[in-house]
Specification:
CATH topology: outer membrane lipoprotein receptor (LolB), chain A
Helix content: 10-25%
CATH class: Mainly Beta
Number of domains: 1
Distance between the termini: 21 Å
Low-confidence stretches: 17-30
Number of strands: 13
Shape: globular
């Protein structure tokens, strides 16, 4: 572990855009004859309003504070929905720190400057960061979308989620009795939403032991375009902060990812 300097930890902190395991749930729509309630309509509206496009490119600046190891960086990310996430981080003077690429099952870390070339699965990333991580949570946070450890589907939207209101704050959360999913998939997420804009303002992660471990907050422009992502650890034994200031966020017809798998 001593070869992972603060610069590489910034690369790993990109994956701290949170938690868990990488299988995908197919779309199995359960039909119902009764009219949808207002809460069910809100959940469906938030889901539809925040569907991830097929291809996205993001440029950003940021900083991390991971166990008092503070690093500033610049970077870019490319996403292919449900398939690949590619991230490149550079120092403030433009030197590449390293590259990270992830599929639902595998991850690759490469840093020429640190002489690192690692391939593994999400278990390796969880061991490096000491937090539960997976493809779906990273993708969901980068795209401000609803997500679960097993993927997201209209069946989940219709049957497993509810709206909870507390002190004028509206949350989309799992229905009671489904908490055992967390012990099997390692986490559950709940989402603070704005019913007016249908945007997701916060995603909180609870681990399999029922502890809240991560909070991601999303800040938008007046035009409801993402401008900042803030990640905070909620586990006092392992604190971290990651901030991404979004420079550009572009939906593409295609993306080219230059990364030689090994």
């Amino acid at each position: 572990m001593n070869k992972f300097s603060g610069m590489l930890r910034a690369l790993i902190a990109m994956a701290l855009l949170t938690s868990m395991a990488g299988c995908h749930v197919g779309k199995r729509i359960t039909k119902t004859e009764r009219p949808a309630t207002e809460d069910e309509k809100l959940i469906k509206a938030v889901y539809d309003a925040n569907l991830q496009p097929k291809y996205i490119e993001i440029r950003f600046t940021g900083k991390t504070d991971l166990d008092e190891d503070k690093v500033s960086f610049m970077g870019s990310a490319k996403l292919v929905k449900d398939s690949l996430i590619w991230v490149s981080l550079r120092s403030p003077i433009g030197i590449e720190i390293g590259r990270f690429m992830a599929s639902p099952d595998s991850i690759w870390l490469v840093s020429k400057i640190l002489k690192i070339k690692e391939k593994g699965n999400w278990r390796m990333m969880r061991e490096l960061t000491r937090h539960e991580l997976d493809f779906n949570s990273l993708q969901g946070i980068l795209t401000q979308s609803l997500f679960t450890a097993g993927g997201i589907s209209e069946n989940i939207i219709q049957n497993d989620l509810l709206v909870r209101r507390q002190d004028n704050i509206v949350w989309i959360a799992w229905k009671p009795g489904i908490e055992d999913i967390a012990s099997k998939s390692r986490y559950l997420a709940q989402f603070r939403v704005d019913p007016g804009t249908q945007k997701i303002n916060e995603a909180d992660l609870k681990d399999g032991a029922g502890r809240w471990v991560s909070k991601a907050q999303f800040l938008y422009t007046r035009e409801n375009v993402i401008k900042k992502i803030e990640i905070n650890g909620m586990d006092e034994s392992h604190n971290y902060i990651a901030e991404l200031n979004i420079v550009t966020y572009d939906v593409k017809e295609n993306v080219v990812i230059n990364f030689e798998k090994f």
